[in-house]
């Protein structure tokens, strides 16, 4: 092994952990409103529908930016793209923390979503340049598990920090951390080993397949009948996860069960545990035990259906241990399972379309969160409040909507095509 290649193999870990830490912040920003939702409602004088709009303001720009993220990664490069957009997320965090009104808070939240949208896709491009083909899946799994740490920090640590310095200063602190990560990306991350004069550790896998243009690739994806069941599943599955775990789970635990902010953070932190444990576990079950993708998606959706049924029909009758288990289950079967969903999408199409297919399907989970967070807020507000607390009837109706979402997601999985070890036209090999 040459000395320069040895340097590249060592240096890539520095790059990976900087980007993985950035992904922790992405998930923190995504789910942080759940713990401080009640404080934000009070200080911003927001009702349920408007708080739902505030929470969902992150998801609209994030979803819209998924395809441009690939284009900017190719033209500007991942290093420049991530640094610039993390600067936008820093500004958004400051605007959110210092917002004098609900309108400014929504603007800040939208800027945060826009800023952190430029992390996942560019990171995939960096990993492809710095890691071998056989290492790529493992690194992606570790990256997703790091997202679980982001969920963890958005639960108990944020609850404690906001109790200490308030939710506003908490977002300012997080914004400063986001800016610092952007500086680290600019200082240390390089798009490819060649930028430092080193050879690439990635291994060529034969002649490169013919490139497929963006518009041609989009047409192939959108006209593929097997794409739509997985897209529908993503939309409704993540509607459940983001609506409960990202916003309304916090107020529900505090208002229906009377839990403190810290205790609520403890319960919601089980989502993070589910993601961290579930990502490698579900991948192992899919690859080694079931040796298939579809059964994992069907069984996971069935579990989510049962969990939402408990929330909808036993809203105020669940023991504390049951609440812990429900959030753990959502972390595994509604969130960690998306690793199998993305893998299924990638395996439906030729390898040279992986970016296009992944970018298109990635619109749907965030669209689900964007649509249903304010819908649940509207339903809660429609039933009114008693002493500033949403009614039990409101939560029952809101969670019944999540039950219907889970039901649709489950039926969508029944129409999925099995993709593991199934030849795809245009692929010379399956890696």
Write a short abstract of this structure.
The chain has 431 residues and is an all-alpha fold. The chain has 19 helices and two strands.
Description:
By secondary structure, this protein is mostly helical. The protein folds into two domains: 1-192, Up-down Bundle (Growth Hormone, Chain: A), CATH 1.20.1250; 216-421, Up-down Bundle (Growth Hormone, Chain: A). It is built from 19 helices and two strands. A two-stranded antiparallel sheet has the order 1-2. Strand 1 and strand 2 (389-390) form a beta hairpin. The longest helix is centred in the middle third of the chain and has 33 residues, at 156-188. The chain is globular, with a radius of gyration of 21 Å. The model has no long low-confidence stretch (mean pLDDT 88).
Which features does this protein show?
single chain; 431 residues; mainly alpha; Growth Hormone, Chain: A; 2 domains; two-stranded antiparallel sheet; 19 helices; globular
Write the layout of secondary structure elements.
Layout (H helix, E strand, L loop, with lengths): L2 H29 L1 H12 L3 H9 L2 H6 L1 H10 L2 H21 L3 H15 L3 H11 L2 H21 L2 H33 L25 H9 L4 H30 L4 H29 L4 H20 L6 H17 L1 H10 L6 H8 L1 H20 L2 E2 L2 E2 L1 H22 L18
Antiparallel strand pairs: 1-2
Helical proportion?
Answer: over 70%
Q: How much strand content do the residues show? A: under 5%
Write down how many β-strands occur, each being a DSSP E stretch of 2 or more residues. Answer: 2
Q: Spell out the helices and strands N to C.
A: HHHHHHHHHHHHHHHHHHEEH
Number of helices: 19
**How many domains is the backbone divided into?**
2
Largest sheet: number of strands, sense, barrel closure: 2 strands, antiparallel
CATH H level, superfamily name of the largest domain: MFS general substrate transporter like domains
Known CATH architecture of the largest domain: Up-down Bundle
- Evaluate the radius of gyration: 21 Å
CATH class annotation of the largest domain? Mainly Alpha
Query: In angstroms, what separates the terminal alpha carbons?
Result: 25 Å
pLDDT averaged over residues: 88
For this structure, the CATH topology of the largest domain is: Growth Hormone, Chain: A
Low-confidence residue ranges: none
Strand order of the largest sheet: 1-2
What structural class do helix, strand and pairing data support?
mainly alpha
Using the alpha-carbon principal axes, give the shape.
Answer: globular
């Amino acid at each position: 092994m040459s000395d320069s290649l040895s340097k590249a193999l060592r240096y890539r870990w520095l790059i990976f952990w900087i980007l993985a830490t950035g992904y922790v912040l992405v998930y923190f920003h995504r789910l942080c409103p759940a713990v401080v939702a009640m404080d934000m409602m009070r200080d911003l004088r927001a009702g349920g529908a408007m708080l739902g709009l505030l929470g969902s303001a992150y998801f609209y720009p994030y979803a819209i930016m998924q395809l441009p993220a690939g284009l900017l990664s190719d033209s500007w490069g991942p290093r420049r793209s991530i640094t610039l957009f993390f600067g936008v997320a820093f500004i958004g965090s400051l605007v959110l923390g210092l917002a004098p009104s609900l309108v400014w808070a929504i603007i800040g939240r939208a800027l945060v979503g826009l800023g952190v949208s430029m992390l996942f896709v560019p990171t995939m491009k960096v990993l492809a340049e710095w890691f071998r083909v056989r290492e790529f899946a493992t690194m992606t799994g570790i990256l997703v598990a790091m997202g679980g740490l982001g969920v963890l920090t958005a639960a108990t640590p944020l609850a404690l920090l906001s109790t200490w310095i308030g939710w506003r200063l908490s977002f300012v602190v997080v914004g400063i951390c986001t800016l610092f990560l952007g500086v680290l990306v600019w200082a240390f991350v390089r798009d490819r080993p060649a930028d430092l004069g080193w050879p690439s550790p990635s291994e060529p896998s034969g002649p490169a397949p013919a490139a497929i243009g963006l518009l041609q690739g989009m047409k192939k994806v959108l006209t593929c009948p097997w794409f739509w069941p997985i897209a529908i599943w993503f939309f409704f599955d993540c509607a459940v996860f983001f609506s409960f775990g990202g916003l309304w789970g916090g107020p529900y635990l505090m208002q229906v069960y009377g839990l403190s902010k810290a205790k609520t953070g403890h319960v919601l932190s089980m989502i993070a545990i589910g993601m961290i444990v579930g990502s490698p576990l579900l991948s192992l079950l899919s690859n080694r035990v079931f040796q298939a993708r579809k059964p994992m998606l069907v069984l996971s959706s069935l579990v989510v259906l049962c969990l939402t049924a408990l929330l909808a029909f036993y809203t105020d009758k669940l023991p504390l241990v049951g609440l812990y288990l429900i959030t753990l289950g959502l972390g595994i079967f509604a969130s960690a399972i998306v690793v199998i969903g993305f893998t299924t999408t990638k395996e439906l199409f030729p390898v040279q379309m992986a970016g296009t297919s992944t970018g298109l399907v990635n619109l749907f989970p965030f669209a689900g969160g964007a649509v249903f967070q304010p819908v649940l807020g509207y339903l809660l507000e429609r039933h009114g409040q008693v002493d500033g607390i949403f009614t039990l009837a409101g939560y029952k109706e809101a969670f019944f909507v999540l039950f219907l979402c889970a039901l649709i997601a489950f039926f969508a999985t029944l129409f999925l095509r099995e993709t593991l070890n199934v030849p795809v036209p245009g692929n010379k090999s399956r890696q």
